[in-house]
Amino acid sequence: MLNGICPSCGSATVHTMERGVCADGSDAGLAIRGSWSGVNSQDYVCVTCGYFEKHFPQGKALEKVASTWPRVVPIDRIPPNPA
Length: 83
Ligand SMILES: [Zn+2]
Description:
The protein is α+β, with helices and mostly antiparallel strands. The chain has a domain at about 15-70. It is about 10% helix and about 20% strand. It is built from one helix and five strands. It has a three-stranded antiparallel sheet, with no helix packed on it. A hairpin with a 5-residue loop joins strand 4 (about 40-45) and strand 5 (about 50-55). The longest helix is centred in the C-terminal third of the chain and has 9 residues, at about 60-70. The protein is flat. The protein starts with 13 loop residues before the first strand and ends in a 15-residue tail after the last helix. The protein binds zinc ion (ZN). Zinc ion binds near residues 11 and 48.
């Protein structure tokens, strides 16, 4: 995504803006759930398929996500159901 290529559809139609999507809906006018005021994320959107990436700087924002959001378990690490 950061190289300008969408990882979802492969198009070179990625646009980026600092704090493009933020908590209060200011800047680019898009709002996202949560409180991220003061976090200067860099946001990437593919205008072909709608794929979206938000990159937070190292620090408290990542610590907050790690402690409050459910983690996505890689599918190859999910133990098989006992038969
Ligand atoms: Zn795309």
